[in-house]
Design brief:
It is a single chain. It contains 6 helices and no strands. The protein is mainly alpha-helical. The chain has a domain of 51 residues. The longest helix has 13 residues. The N terminus is likely disordered.
Amino acid sequence: MVSLHFHLVFYTMASKLPSTSSQESDSKKSRKTVNIEKKLEVLDRYARGEKTLVIVHATVLKESMLNTIVANRMRMCVFIVFVT
């Protein structure tokens, strides 16, 4: 009897998941990619001590993208060393 209850709860939980319609997927924003040269420019400016807002205005990137690049700088350094 207990296992029947768990199956019933699982079934009701699964039915509450949102469905993906074609209209929702069409309205999604596309991801923007930043090339490695732009990332290296951002990291160079950041290492020289420039303020993040100055870098954002100079490179026309969003502040969240700049913060992501700075946060992932060690991973990118490992990638560059591995490639070269």
